[in-house]
Amino acid sequence: MSNSKYLDSLNQEEKSNLTKKLFNQQNGKCFICGKDINLKLHITNIDHIVALVNNGKDEENNFGLTHESCNKSKQDTDLRVARVLCTLEDIKNQTPNGETTSLKHILRYYNGSQYDFKYRVNEDVMEYSFPDIGDNNIYKSTIFKDRLSGEKSSFIEIPIEYIFHDELINPRGINSSLRLLVKEFYKGNPQLHLSLARIENGKIRVFDGQHKAVAQLLLGARKLVIKIFLDPDIDRLIETNTNAGSKLKQIAFDKSIVRQLHNTLYKEKLEQYQSEHGLSFDDFSFSERDVVEHFKGERGNIKKYIINSIKNQITHNSKLTDYIDFEGRAKELPISYSTFEKTFLALFINSKTILTTRINYREEEGLNPRVLEHDQLIKLCNILAEEIYEKKYDVNIGVNRIEQRLINGKDKDITDDHLIAYRVSKEEILANWLKYIERIIKAFFINTGKSFDEENLFQQPFEDQLWENIRAFIKSFIQLPLWKDRALASTIFSGKSNYDFWKQIFTTGNTAENVPVLAQPINYMEMMKKC
User: Fold this and answer.
1) Model pTM score
2) Which domains can be identified in the chain, with CATH numbers?
3) Short-list 315, 313, 289, CA closest to 302
């Protein structure tokens, strides 16, 4: 039985005729993904365009025809919103490897970011035009001067052909909050905060309000109203953007974003070091330690910039990125950034290591310690995503009250794969089982007789066999019966436990109260052999 009395009342022939009618109305395209439907090759679904729970009508003009796979994986109950979010997924899939989808990629998809902005300032008025797109009108906008900062700005409606993403001030990509913005804007609710931009070398670069801009673009906007800063102090904008979230708490600005800005500041310090030593921009024949020592009054900050730069690159450039909640409020994603920071980053990146080898040390041989660290941690993140989350974790189900739903018997839509991914991602659990990966790496180096740096494991190259060992352990670990045992929702998984609780279970098989949970303690050597 479907949730449609109308569809349930149709016999097979009537339903087939409705399918053909919708097929013709939609020009043979899926309502969600917009790609061709072949009625002989594809399994199709008929679904409400506006869901019944959203007051949609159970009648023929509120039905859309979709691929069954698209309907099952849709990201919203409203098919129109699902279609927009499907477009976003297409853009993400087209994003080159090593890059995180951002405003830059959305603009590129809609043929934005093409032309320089032509303007002139006449006292307190900005005059401008858009001749590259055939608009030769001369527009005028008032320039406002902030009384406290002295910064000048103006409010302008800009065609997307003249808009660029500011990757210097705001390098972050798109996160899960975008889905909520798309739904909000689709309802016709206005945005209450404009995107902010600056002009650099003739280009309008948006550095704040990226998600609001993207949501508007996905919903068909081809012009955006933007507040543009004229000749701003870049350092002041970066500092203000950072402080707004970290110190002043004015916006949802978590540690991951602060780290991205530190990444920008580190790059600026490298360029300053090169300039003050007469080095070319591609000359990295100096070490991290040299940079720290050069900026003596900022040693603490420079060290922080270096480490946060590394952590930022790891966090935002792997398949695992799609499963990390950077906002701290979403209920769709399994790993909060705080959890990722306290477990994965804390375990595998040594925050005290400042290298004395030159920055380009053994780069051509593929043995540069920072490059190895980056590439191998990205590879580990990818393995985690492939084995635990991809095609297994359902963002539509999310993480909200999962255990309580199991207890209440409202868990028919929760698959075993989703439950496993949810449970092994809990901070107190993740922190403990990732340590077995650390042990596997150390054991491999010891058994092969190779010297290694225990404090910086990922700065030495891993052999293929080691990667196979890691993947095999993860496969075995997530197959342990307790992760999909729904009866444990009211006992072992009820409420938040501490790190020691799970350490006890993994090392003995029992809780501290001697309640059996595992058939036997975790033996990573045996678990590597099972897969």
Assistant:
1) 0.59
2) 5-72 (3.40.1800.10), 103-246 (3.90.1530.10), 366-530 (no CATH)
3) 289
